[in-house]
Amino acid sequence: MKTEILPLPTQSRSFLTIALIEMWERFGYYGMQALIVYFMVQRLGFDDSRANLVWSAAAALIYVSPAIGGWIGDKVLGTKRSMVLGALVLTVGYALMAVPTENTWFLFCALGVVVVGNGLFKPNTANLVRKIYEGDDSKIDSAFTLYYMAVNVGSTISMLATPWIKDYVNATYGGEVGWHIAFGACSVGLVVGLFNVFLMRATIAHVGSLPDERPLDVGKLAAVLAGGVVMVGVSAVILEYRTLARIFVYLAGLVVLGIFIHLIRRSAPNERAGLTAALVLTLQSVFFFIFYQQMSTSLSLFALRNVDLEFNLLGAHLFDWSPAQFQALNAIWIMVLSPVLAWAYNTAGRSGRDLSIAGKFALGFFAVALGFFAYGVAGAFAVGGKTSSWVMVAGYGLYSLGELLVSGLGLAMVARYVPARMSGFMMGAYYVATGISQYLGGVVANLASVPSDVTDPLQTLPIYTSLFNKLGVGALVCTAIALAVLPLMRKLSATHHAHN
User: CDD domains, per this entry (predicted)?
Assistant: First the structure.
Protein backbone atom coordinates (compact mmCIF):
# COMPACT_ATOMS: atom_id res chain seq x y z
CA MET A 1 0.00 0.00 0.00
CA LYS A 2 1.56 3.32 -1.06
CA THR A 3 1.54 5.92 1.69
CA GLU A 4 1.12 9.57 0.79
CA ILE A 5 3.66 11.95 2.31
CA LEU A 6 1.49 14.04 4.62
CA PRO A 7 1.99 17.43 6.27
CA LEU A 8 4.19 17.38 9.37
CA PRO A 9 1.40 17.91 11.94
CA THR A 10 -0.38 14.77 10.68
CA GLN A 11 2.91 12.86 10.68
CA SER A 12 3.59 14.00 14.23
CA ARG A 13 0.20 12.87 15.53
CA SER A 14 0.54 9.50 13.82
CA PHE A 15 4.06 9.08 15.19
CA LEU A 16 2.88 9.93 18.72
CA THR A 17 0.21 7.21 18.62
CA ILE A 18 2.72 4.52 17.64
CA ALA A 19 5.40 5.79 20.03
CA LEU A 20 2.95 5.65 22.98
CA ILE A 21 1.91 2.03 22.43
CA GLU A 22 5.56 1.09 21.93
CA MET A 23 6.43 2.92 25.15
CA TRP A 24 3.93 0.89 27.16
CA GLU A 25 5.02 -2.36 25.49
CA ARG A 26 8.61 -1.60 26.48
CA PHE A 27 7.35 -0.83 30.01
CA GLY A 28 6.17 -4.43 30.19
CA TYR A 29 9.16 -6.05 28.52
CA TYR A 30 11.91 -4.26 30.43
CA GLY A 31 10.05 -4.44 33.72
CA MET A 32 10.10 -8.21 33.27
CA GLN A 33 13.71 -8.24 32.02
CA ALA A 34 14.92 -6.32 35.08
CA LEU A 35 13.87 -9.21 37.33
CA ILE A 36 13.88 -12.38 35.27
CA VAL A 37 17.52 -13.49 35.74
CA TYR A 38 17.40 -12.60 39.45
CA PHE A 39 14.11 -14.52 39.75
CA MET A 40 15.68 -17.64 38.27
CA VAL A 41 18.86 -17.39 40.37
CA GLN A 42 17.43 -16.19 43.69
CA ARG A 43 13.93 -17.71 43.65
CA LEU A 44 14.11 -20.80 41.45
CA GLY A 45 17.65 -21.77 42.45
CA PHE A 46 19.12 -21.83 38.90
CA ASP A 47 22.89 -21.56 38.64
CA ASP A 48 24.32 -18.60 36.67
CA SER A 49 24.90 -20.65 33.54
CA ARG A 50 21.33 -21.96 33.32
CA ALA A 51 19.74 -18.59 34.13
CA ASN A 52 21.88 -16.80 31.53
CA LEU A 53 21.11 -19.32 28.79
CA VAL A 54 17.38 -19.68 29.56
CA TRP A 55 16.89 -15.92 29.44
CA SER A 56 19.11 -15.54 26.38
CA ALA A 57 17.19 -18.31 24.59
CA ALA A 58 13.92 -16.58 25.54
CA ALA A 59 15.27 -13.25 24.29
CA ALA A 60 16.36 -14.96 21.06
CA LEU A 61 12.87 -16.38 20.53
CA ILE A 62 11.32 -13.01 21.39
CA TYR A 63 13.41 -11.36 18.70
CA VAL A 64 13.19 -14.18 16.14
CA SER A 65 9.39 -14.33 16.21
CA PRO A 66 8.93 -10.95 14.43
CA ALA A 67 10.15 -12.60 11.20
CA ILE A 68 6.78 -14.36 11.11
CA GLY A 69 4.85 -11.47 12.65
CA GLY A 70 6.05 -9.06 9.98
CA TRP A 71 4.74 -11.37 7.26
CA ILE A 72 1.41 -11.76 9.09
CA GLY A 73 1.12 -7.98 9.27
CA ASP A 74 2.00 -7.48 5.59
CA LYS A 75 -0.03 -10.30 4.06
CA VAL A 76 -2.54 -11.85 6.48
CA LEU A 77 -4.14 -9.67 9.16
CA GLY A 78 -2.76 -6.20 8.44
CA THR A 79 -0.06 -4.14 10.11
CA LYS A 80 -2.32 -2.28 12.55
CA ARG A 81 -4.40 -5.33 13.48
CA SER A 82 -1.26 -7.40 14.11
CA MET A 83 0.13 -4.67 16.35
CA VAL A 84 -3.03 -4.59 18.48
CA LEU A 85 -3.32 -8.39 18.62
CA GLY A 86 0.32 -8.62 19.69
CA ALA A 87 -0.28 -6.14 22.52
CA LEU A 88 -3.28 -8.20 23.72
CA VAL A 89 -1.23 -11.43 23.72
CA LEU A 90 1.61 -9.72 25.61
CA THR A 91 -0.88 -8.55 28.22
CA VAL A 92 -1.86 -12.18 28.80
CA GLY A 93 1.79 -13.30 28.93
CA TYR A 94 2.78 -10.90 31.70
CA ALA A 95 -0.47 -11.64 33.56
CA LEU A 96 0.49 -15.34 33.58
CA MET A 97 3.86 -14.44 35.11
CA ALA A 98 1.92 -12.76 37.92
CA VAL A 99 0.44 -16.14 38.96
CA PRO A 100 2.18 -17.01 42.26
CA THR A 101 3.85 -20.28 41.33
CA GLU A 102 7.50 -21.26 41.04
CA ASN A 103 6.77 -24.08 38.60
CA THR A 104 9.46 -23.97 35.91
CA TRP A 105 7.21 -25.17 33.08
CA PHE A 106 4.58 -22.56 33.92
CA LEU A 107 7.23 -19.84 33.70
CA PHE A 108 8.47 -21.18 30.37
CA CYS A 109 4.91 -21.26 28.94
CA ALA A 110 4.31 -17.67 30.11
CA LEU A 111 7.53 -16.66 28.36
CA GLY A 112 6.25 -18.52 25.29
CA VAL A 113 3.14 -16.31 25.28
CA VAL A 114 5.42 -13.26 25.44
CA VAL A 115 7.35 -14.66 22.46
CA VAL A 116 4.17 -14.90 20.37
CA GLY A 117 2.92 -11.46 21.42
CA ASN A 118 6.22 -9.79 20.64
CA GLY A 119 6.37 -11.50 17.26
CA LEU A 120 3.08 -9.90 16.27
CA PHE A 121 3.73 -6.53 17.89
CA LYS A 122 7.33 -5.56 17.28
CA PRO A 123 7.83 -5.58 13.49
CA ASN A 124 4.46 -4.00 12.79
CA THR A 125 4.92 -0.96 15.04
CA ALA A 126 8.30 -0.27 13.41
CA ASN A 127 6.78 -0.76 9.97
CA LEU A 128 4.05 1.78 10.74
CA VAL A 129 6.70 4.38 11.68
CA ARG A 130 8.46 3.65 8.40
CA LYS A 131 5.19 4.16 6.47
CA ILE A 132 4.50 7.47 8.22
CA TYR A 133 7.83 8.94 7.04
CA GLU A 134 8.25 7.00 3.81
CA GLY A 135 10.29 8.87 1.20
CA ASP A 136 12.25 11.22 3.50
CA ASP A 137 15.57 9.67 4.61
CA SER A 138 16.67 12.43 6.99
CA LYS A 139 13.29 12.42 8.76
CA ILE A 140 13.37 8.61 8.96
CA ASP A 141 16.72 8.70 10.83
CA SER A 142 15.47 11.43 13.15
CA ALA A 143 12.06 9.75 13.68
CA PHE A 144 13.57 6.38 14.60
CA THR A 145 16.01 8.05 17.00
CA LEU A 146 13.16 9.89 18.74
CA TYR A 147 11.10 6.68 18.62
CA TYR A 148 13.97 4.94 20.38
CA MET A 149 13.96 7.67 23.03
CA ALA A 150 10.18 7.52 23.51
CA VAL A 151 10.13 3.80 24.16
CA ASN A 152 12.91 4.20 26.72
CA VAL A 153 10.61 6.37 28.81
CA GLY A 154 8.55 3.25 29.44
CA SER A 155 11.54 1.03 30.10
CA THR A 156 13.09 3.54 32.53
CA ILE A 157 9.95 3.72 34.65
CA SER A 158 9.46 -0.04 34.69
CA MET A 159 13.09 -0.96 35.44
CA LEU A 160 13.02 1.40 38.41
CA ALA A 161 9.52 0.38 39.50
CA THR A 162 9.41 -3.43 39.27
CA PRO A 163 12.46 -4.08 41.52
CA TRP A 164 11.05 -1.59 44.04
CA ILE A 165 7.60 -3.22 43.92
CA LYS A 166 9.16 -6.65 44.45
CA ASP A 167 11.23 -5.50 47.43
CA TYR A 168 8.42 -3.45 48.99
CA VAL A 169 5.78 -6.20 48.80
CA ASN A 170 8.16 -8.88 50.06
CA ALA A 171 9.31 -6.69 52.96
CA THR A 172 5.80 -5.53 53.87
CA TYR A 173 3.87 -8.77 53.59
CA GLY A 174 6.61 -11.37 53.88
CA GLY A 175 7.15 -14.31 51.56
CA GLU A 176 8.06 -14.01 47.89
CA VAL A 177 4.78 -12.87 46.27
CA GLY A 178 6.39 -9.52 45.47
CA TRP A 179 8.08 -11.08 42.44
CA HIS A 180 4.70 -11.90 40.90
CA ILE A 181 3.08 -8.57 41.82
CA ALA A 182 5.94 -6.88 39.98
CA PHE A 183 5.43 -9.07 36.90
CA GLY A 184 1.72 -8.21 37.03
CA ALA A 185 2.55 -4.49 36.84
CA CYS A 186 4.05 -5.19 33.41
CA SER A 187 0.65 -6.40 32.22
CA VAL A 188 -1.13 -3.28 33.54
CA GLY A 189 1.13 -1.07 31.42
CA LEU A 190 -0.01 -2.77 28.23
CA VAL A 191 -3.66 -2.28 29.15
CA VAL A 192 -2.96 1.46 29.34
CA GLY A 193 -1.16 1.30 25.99
CA LEU A 194 -4.09 -0.42 24.28
CA PHE A 195 -6.47 2.18 25.69
CA ASN A 196 -4.26 4.92 24.18
CA VAL A 197 -4.43 3.30 20.73
CA PHE A 198 -8.22 3.04 20.96
CA LEU A 199 -8.52 6.75 21.78
CA MET A 200 -6.07 7.86 19.08
CA ARG A 201 -6.93 5.32 16.36
CA ALA A 202 -8.01 8.03 13.90
CA THR A 203 -4.43 9.35 13.68
CA ILE A 204 -3.21 6.12 12.06
CA ALA A 205 -6.22 5.48 9.85
CA HIS A 206 -4.22 6.39 6.74
CA VAL A 207 -1.27 4.02 7.29
CA GLY A 208 -1.08 0.24 7.20
CA SER A 209 -0.83 -2.67 4.80
CA LEU A 210 -3.38 -3.87 2.24
CA PRO A 211 -5.19 -6.34 4.60
CA ASP A 212 -5.92 -3.40 6.95
CA GLU A 213 -8.16 -1.94 4.24
CA ARG A 214 -10.26 -5.11 4.03
CA PRO A 215 -12.76 -6.55 6.52
CA LEU A 216 -11.21 -8.81 9.14
CA ASP A 217 -11.01 -12.42 7.96
CA VAL A 218 -12.08 -14.44 11.03
CA GLY A 219 -10.69 -17.66 9.57
CA LYS A 220 -7.25 -16.15 9.16
CA LEU A 221 -7.41 -14.73 12.68
CA ALA A 222 -8.27 -18.19 14.05
CA ALA A 223 -5.38 -19.73 12.12
CA VAL A 224 -2.94 -17.14 13.53
CA LEU A 225 -4.17 -17.78 17.10
CA ALA A 226 -3.90 -21.55 16.65
CA GLY A 227 -0.36 -21.16 15.35
CA GLY A 228 0.39 -18.98 18.35
CA VAL A 229 -0.73 -21.72 20.77
CA VAL A 230 1.59 -24.19 19.05
CA MET A 231 4.45 -21.68 19.23
CA VAL A 232 3.91 -21.27 22.99
CA GLY A 233 4.43 -25.01 23.48
CA VAL A 234 7.44 -25.13 21.19
CA SER A 235 9.01 -22.17 23.01
CA ALA A 236 8.55 -23.82 26.42
CA VAL A 237 10.29 -26.99 25.21
CA ILE A 238 13.17 -25.00 23.69
CA LEU A 239 13.68 -23.11 26.96
CA GLU A 240 13.83 -26.36 28.93
CA TYR A 241 16.43 -28.08 26.75
CA ARG A 242 19.68 -26.21 25.98
CA THR A 243 20.63 -28.32 22.98
CA LEU A 244 17.30 -27.60 21.29
CA ALA A 245 17.73 -23.90 21.96
CA ARG A 246 21.18 -23.90 20.38
CA ILE A 247 20.01 -25.82 17.31
CA PHE A 248 16.96 -23.60 16.83
CA VAL A 249 18.88 -20.33 17.06
CA TYR A 250 21.63 -21.41 14.68
CA LEU A 251 19.17 -22.83 12.15
CA ALA A 252 17.16 -19.61 12.26
CA GLY A 253 20.33 -17.71 11.42
CA LEU A 254 21.16 -19.92 8.45
CA VAL A 255 17.60 -19.78 7.09
CA VAL A 256 17.33 -15.99 7.30
CA LEU A 257 20.80 -15.51 5.80
CA GLY A 258 19.83 -17.83 2.94
CA ILE A 259 16.58 -15.96 2.33
CA PHE A 260 18.42 -12.63 2.45
CA ILE A 261 20.91 -13.81 -0.18
CA HIS A 262 18.10 -15.30 -2.29
CA LEU A 263 16.18 -12.00 -2.26
CA ILE A 264 19.30 -10.08 -3.25
CA ARG A 265 19.92 -12.42 -6.18
CA ARG A 266 16.28 -12.34 -7.33
CA SER A 267 15.68 -8.62 -6.78
CA ALA A 268 15.64 -6.03 -9.53
CA PRO A 269 19.04 -4.47 -10.34
CA ASN A 270 17.97 -1.13 -8.89
CA GLU A 271 17.11 -2.85 -5.55
CA ARG A 272 20.21 -5.02 -5.19
CA ALA A 273 22.64 -2.42 -3.86
CA GLY A 274 20.24 -1.33 -1.11
CA LEU A 275 19.56 -4.92 -0.03
CA THR A 276 23.28 -5.72 0.05
CA ALA A 277 23.93 -2.63 2.18
CA ALA A 278 21.14 -3.71 4.55
CA LEU A 279 22.69 -7.19 4.84
CA VAL A 280 26.14 -5.80 5.70
CA LEU A 281 24.70 -3.51 8.38
CA THR A 282 22.49 -6.30 9.76
CA LEU A 283 25.55 -8.54 10.19
CA GLN A 284 27.24 -5.72 12.11
CA SER A 285 24.13 -5.45 14.30
CA VAL A 286 24.53 -9.13 15.22
CA PHE A 287 27.85 -8.34 16.86
CA PHE A 288 26.43 -5.31 18.64
CA PHE A 289 23.64 -7.29 20.31
CA ILE A 290 26.12 -9.77 21.74
CA PHE A 291 27.39 -6.81 23.77
CA TYR A 292 23.84 -5.60 24.43
CA GLN A 293 22.76 -8.90 26.01
CA GLN A 294 25.34 -8.41 28.78
CA MET A 295 23.04 -5.81 30.34
CA SER A 296 20.55 -8.42 31.52
CA THR A 297 23.11 -11.20 32.15
CA SER A 298 26.74 -10.58 33.15
CA LEU A 299 26.32 -6.87 34.01
CA SER A 300 23.16 -7.65 35.96
CA LEU A 301 24.90 -10.31 38.07
CA PHE A 302 27.96 -8.03 38.41
CA ALA A 303 25.67 -5.39 39.96
CA LEU A 304 24.30 -8.02 42.35
CA ARG A 305 27.69 -9.15 43.62
CA ASN A 306 30.29 -6.47 43.02
CA VAL A 307 28.71 -3.00 42.96
CA ASP A 308 28.27 -0.74 45.97
CA LEU A 309 24.55 0.05 45.93
CA GLU A 310 25.00 3.45 47.60
CA PHE A 311 25.18 6.62 45.52
CA ASN A 312 27.49 9.07 47.30
CA LEU A 313 28.71 12.47 46.12
CA LEU A 314 31.46 14.51 47.83
CA GLY A 315 31.10 12.38 50.95
CA ALA A 316 27.33 12.85 51.17
CA HIS A 317 24.96 9.89 50.82
CA LEU A 318 22.33 10.52 48.15
CA PHE A 319 20.28 7.31 47.78
CA ASP A 320 20.49 3.54 47.35
CA TRP A 321 19.46 1.37 44.40
CA SER A 322 18.69 -2.31 44.20
CA PRO A 323 20.94 -4.28 41.79
CA ALA A 324 18.13 -4.70 39.23
CA GLN A 325 17.57 -0.94 39.01
CA PHE A 326 21.01 -0.34 37.48
CA GLN A 327 19.60 -1.59 34.17
CA ALA A 328 17.48 1.58 34.10
CA LEU A 329 20.68 3.59 33.55
CA ASN A 330 20.65 2.39 29.95
CA ALA A 331 17.22 3.84 29.26
CA ILE A 332 17.95 7.06 31.19
CA TRP A 333 21.04 7.70 29.07
CA ILE A 334 19.07 6.89 25.91
CA MET A 335 16.57 9.62 26.80
CA VAL A 336 19.33 12.12 27.55
CA LEU A 337 21.32 11.42 24.38
CA SER A 338 18.51 10.84 21.84
CA PRO A 339 17.38 14.47 21.42
CA VAL A 340 21.01 15.55 21.01
CA LEU A 341 21.64 12.99 18.27
CA ALA A 342 18.31 13.69 16.55
CA TRP A 343 19.20 17.41 16.45
CA ALA A 344 22.66 16.58 15.12
CA TYR A 345 21.23 14.35 12.36
CA ASN A 346 18.72 17.00 11.25
CA THR A 347 21.30 19.80 11.32
CA ALA A 348 23.87 17.78 9.40
CA GLY A 349 21.20 16.60 6.95
CA ARG A 350 20.15 20.17 6.12
CA SER A 351 23.76 21.11 5.39
CA GLY A 352 24.50 17.92 3.44
CA ARG A 353 27.16 16.75 5.92
CA ASP A 354 25.30 13.92 7.66
CA LEU A 355 27.51 10.95 8.56
CA SER A 356 26.47 7.73 6.80
CA ILE A 357 24.72 5.00 8.78
CA ALA A 358 27.82 2.82 8.27
CA GLY A 359 29.97 5.58 9.78
CA LYS A 360 27.60 5.89 12.74
CA PHE A 361 27.84 2.11 13.27
CA ALA A 362 31.67 2.36 13.50
CA LEU A 363 31.45 5.22 15.99
CA GLY A 364 28.88 3.25 18.00
CA PHE A 365 31.15 0.21 18.37
CA PHE A 366 33.97 2.46 19.59
CA ALA A 367 31.69 3.93 22.28
CA VAL A 368 30.69 0.40 23.37
CA ALA A 369 34.38 -0.53 23.65
CA LEU A 370 35.04 2.44 25.93
CA GLY A 371 32.01 1.47 28.05
CA PHE A 372 33.22 -2.07 28.69
CA PHE A 373 36.75 -0.87 29.42
CA ALA A 374 35.21 1.42 32.07
CA TYR A 375 33.71 -1.65 33.77
CA GLY A 376 36.93 -3.60 33.29
CA VAL A 377 39.24 -1.08 34.96
CA ALA A 378 36.78 -0.59 37.84
CA GLY A 379 38.37 -3.54 39.64
CA ALA A 380 41.52 -1.52 40.21
CA PHE A 381 39.54 0.98 42.32
CA ALA A 382 37.24 -1.46 44.12
CA VAL A 383 37.03 -1.51 47.92
CA GLY A 384 36.49 -4.95 49.41
CA GLY A 385 35.53 -6.27 45.98
CA LYS A 386 32.81 -3.60 45.51
CA THR A 387 33.06 -1.00 42.74
CA SER A 388 31.49 2.44 42.89
CA SER A 389 27.96 2.83 41.57
CA TRP A 390 29.24 5.80 39.55
CA VAL A 391 31.31 3.40 37.46
CA MET A 392 28.03 1.88 36.31
CA VAL A 393 26.70 5.34 35.43
CA ALA A 394 29.75 6.11 33.27
CA GLY A 395 29.88 2.68 31.64
CA TYR A 396 26.19 2.71 30.80
CA GLY A 397 26.54 6.22 29.34
CA LEU A 398 29.15 5.12 26.82
CA TYR A 399 27.38 1.86 26.14
CA SER A 400 24.07 3.68 25.53
CA LEU A 401 25.67 6.11 23.09
CA GLY A 402 26.88 3.09 21.15
CA GLU A 403 23.42 1.57 21.30
CA LEU A 404 21.82 4.67 19.80
CA LEU A 405 24.34 4.77 16.97
CA VAL A 406 23.92 1.07 16.11
CA SER A 407 20.64 -0.37 17.39
CA GLY A 408 18.82 2.97 17.30
CA LEU A 409 19.54 3.25 13.56
CA GLY A 410 19.14 -0.43 12.70
CA LEU A 411 15.45 -0.04 11.91
CA ALA A 412 16.13 3.22 10.07
CA MET A 413 18.67 1.27 7.98
CA VAL A 414 15.97 -1.21 6.93
CA ALA A 415 13.55 1.64 6.22
CA ARG A 416 16.14 3.42 4.07
CA TYR A 417 17.58 0.57 2.00
CA VAL A 418 14.82 -2.05 1.70
CA PRO A 419 12.05 -1.82 -0.95
CA ALA A 420 8.61 -1.11 0.53
CA ARG A 421 7.11 -4.36 -0.81
CA MET A 422 9.38 -6.47 1.43
CA SER A 423 9.74 -4.09 4.38
CA GLY A 424 7.67 -6.20 6.79
CA PHE A 425 9.74 -9.30 6.17
CA MET A 426 13.01 -7.38 6.38
CA MET A 427 11.98 -5.79 9.67
CA GLY A 428 11.41 -9.35 10.87
CA ALA A 429 14.74 -10.54 9.45
CA TYR A 430 16.51 -7.76 11.31
CA TYR A 431 14.93 -8.94 14.56
CA VAL A 432 15.96 -12.54 13.82
CA ALA A 433 19.56 -11.36 13.55
CA THR A 434 19.05 -9.58 16.86
CA GLY A 435 17.66 -12.76 18.42
CA ILE A 436 20.62 -14.85 17.32
CA SER A 437 22.98 -12.37 18.94
CA GLN A 438 20.93 -12.34 22.16
CA TYR A 439 21.55 -16.07 22.51
CA LEU A 440 25.23 -15.70 21.61
CA GLY A 441 25.40 -12.94 24.21
CA GLY A 442 24.24 -15.42 26.84
CA VAL A 443 26.95 -17.85 25.76
CA VAL A 444 29.51 -15.04 26.14
CA ALA A 445 28.07 -14.05 29.55
CA ASN A 446 28.66 -17.60 30.76
CA LEU A 447 32.39 -16.96 30.49
CA ALA A 448 31.80 -15.07 33.74
CA SER A 449 29.55 -17.66 35.41
CA VAL A 450 30.26 -17.74 39.14
CA PRO A 451 30.16 -21.15 40.88
CA SER A 452 27.32 -21.35 43.39
CA ASP A 453 29.75 -21.88 46.29
CA VAL A 454 31.67 -18.65 45.57
CA THR A 455 30.18 -15.67 47.41
CA ASP A 456 33.20 -13.52 48.32
CA PRO A 457 33.18 -10.29 46.23
CA LEU A 458 36.99 -10.40 46.10
CA GLN A 459 36.74 -13.72 44.26
CA THR A 460 33.91 -12.80 41.89
CA LEU A 461 35.31 -9.38 40.90
CA PRO A 462 38.20 -10.60 38.67
CA ILE A 463 35.83 -13.05 36.94
CA TYR A 464 33.66 -10.17 35.73
CA THR A 465 36.37 -7.60 34.99
CA SER A 466 38.26 -10.13 32.88
CA LEU A 467 35.15 -10.66 30.71
CA PHE A 468 34.48 -6.92 30.40
CA ASN A 469 38.04 -6.20 29.23
CA LYS A 470 37.73 -8.96 26.61
CA LEU A 471 34.42 -7.48 25.45
CA GLY A 472 36.10 -4.07 25.16
CA VAL A 473 38.76 -5.57 22.89
CA GLY A 474 36.03 -7.32 20.88
CA ALA A 475 34.19 -4.03 20.38
CA LEU A 476 37.41 -2.42 19.13
CA VAL A 477 37.77 -5.21 16.57
CA CYS A 478 34.18 -4.54 15.45
CA THR A 479 35.04 -0.85 15.12
CA ALA A 480 37.96 -1.72 12.84
CA ILE A 481 35.75 -3.99 10.70
CA ALA A 482 33.06 -1.30 10.43
CA LEU A 483 35.67 1.22 9.29
CA ALA A 484 37.12 -1.26 6.79
CA VAL A 485 33.76 -1.74 5.02
CA LEU A 486 33.02 2.00 4.80
CA PRO A 487 34.25 2.29 1.17
CA LEU A 488 32.00 -0.62 0.15
CA MET A 489 29.05 0.94 1.97
CA ARG A 490 29.60 4.31 0.28
CA LYS A 491 29.57 2.60 -3.12
CA LEU A 492 26.42 0.58 -2.34
CA SER A 493 24.62 3.61 -0.91
CA ALA A 494 25.50 5.75 -3.92
CA THR A 495 24.25 3.04 -6.30
CA HIS A 496 21.04 2.65 -4.28
CA HIS A 497 20.28 6.39 -4.33
CA ALA A 498 21.11 6.65 -8.02
CA HIS A 499 18.32 4.18 -8.82
CA ASN A 500 15.72 5.54 -6.39
Answer: MFS_DtpA_like
